[in-house]
Specification:
Blueprint: H1 2-12, H2 30-36, E1 52-56, E2 59-64, H3 78-90, E3 96-100, H4 110-113, H5 121-129, E4 134-139, E5 146-150, E6 153-157, E7 164-165, E8 177-178, E9 183-189, E10 194-200
Parallel strand pairs: 2-3, 3-4, 4-6
Antiparallel strand pairs: 1-2, 5-6, 7-8, 9-10
């Protein structure tokens, strides 16, 4: 909704000139997202889909649109997959991060896999396997931190800033959420590889210095 995007814009405003790149998920509406963030030029291309390719320092960030309007699950149609193939062909040799909302792998959380990426995951994996410069595939949707090998690289999901999905790997586990701490991932490029951290979001005591041999040194 327009009001919800206005609230998001207010939350992001303190970041100032820090580059921010938005990606639609299953609760988004493409046209309103574009209207509400009209100054984000990267959102305005791509035709029907909100997807783009931008440089972030030495990295190439490719955002892939997986949303299906009005549905919770995601899909990658032939048009979106071909767009990705073309973008990857154009940046051979550059380290690439692919961002997408729905994870392209089974998480073993049954009720979430039922609304995961239900179309195009196999084709995506074949495309990624042909491009060894893809350093990471980063996803949301699951409200948990999950990592898996995929197409010769690493695919991961990130926790949410609000509630987390309950970790229950029983095939018939009920759909449930938990008030575990929110968290975020920090991906840092060290010049050769991408190093990914998981950080809890909140205010916590510390940091406290470590001391030699467990003793306080004056």
């Amino acid at each position: 909704r327009e009001a919800e995007y206005a609230h998001l814009a207010a939350l992001l405003a303190p970041l100032g000139d820090l580059p921010v790149y938005l990606l639609p998920g299953n609760h988004d509406e493409r046209a309103q997202l574009r209207r509400s963030f009209a100054r984000h030029g990267y959102l305005q291309g791509g035709g029907e889909f909100v997807q783009y390719s931008v440089k972030v320092g030495p990295l190439r960030l490719i955002a892939l649109d997986t949303m299906v309007p009005g549905e919770s699950h995601g899909a990658l149609c032939a048009a979106r997959l071909q767009w990705l193939e073309d973008e990857l062909a154009a940046c051979r040799g550059e380290p690439v991060v692919i961002a997408m909302h729905h994870p392209p792998f089974r998480t073993l959380i049954g009720h979430m896999d039922k609304i995961g990426l239900l179309e195009g995951a196999g084709q995506l994996e074949a495309i990624v396997a042909r491009h060894p410069n893809v350093e990471r595939i980063i996803c949301g949707h699951l409200h948990r931190a999950i990592d898996v090998r995929f197409g010769g690289t690493i695919a991961s999901t990130c926790p949410a800033p609000g509630h987390q999905v309950a970790l229950d790997l029983q095939p018939d586990a009920p759909s449930a959420w938990m008030l575990e701490p929110p968290a975020l991932r920090v991906h840092a490029w060290d010049g050769q590889r991408l190093v990914s951290h998981l950080a809890a979001s909140g205010i916590f005591e510390g940091p406290y210095p470590f001391h030699e041999n467990g003793m306080l040194i004056d």
